[in-house]
Fold this sequence. Notes:
Layout (H helix, E strand, L loop, with lengths): L5 E3 L6 E3 H4 L1 H45 L3 H14 L3 H25 L1
Amino acid sequence: MGTSCLATFPHSGQKHNxxxxxxxxxxxxxxxxxxxxxxxxxxxxxxxKAQETRRKIIVGAIVTTEALKDPKIAKWLxxxxxxxxxxxxDQKELAGLLADLDAxxxxxxxxxx
Length: 113
């Protein structure tokens, strides 16, 4: 089996863990390792969030482009945006796009009549 980390001190006859002798140094090292791990985790979370944001931008650009070409997609996207963009600031940002989508969707409505 493995060797013991216990040492007998000559005057007391008691066994003590060798790590106790270096506890100040060990605690600092462990704290540093924890801090490094936390920093790495924060960097990974930031990178993951950036990847998710890029993915959303790409998907949004593709869907918007297709919606402006296809009246049925335009109607769906306009409806979806109106239903889900509930904040006033978002609604203001989307006003121009919604107008364009509505104009494209009317083509579908005119074609069905």
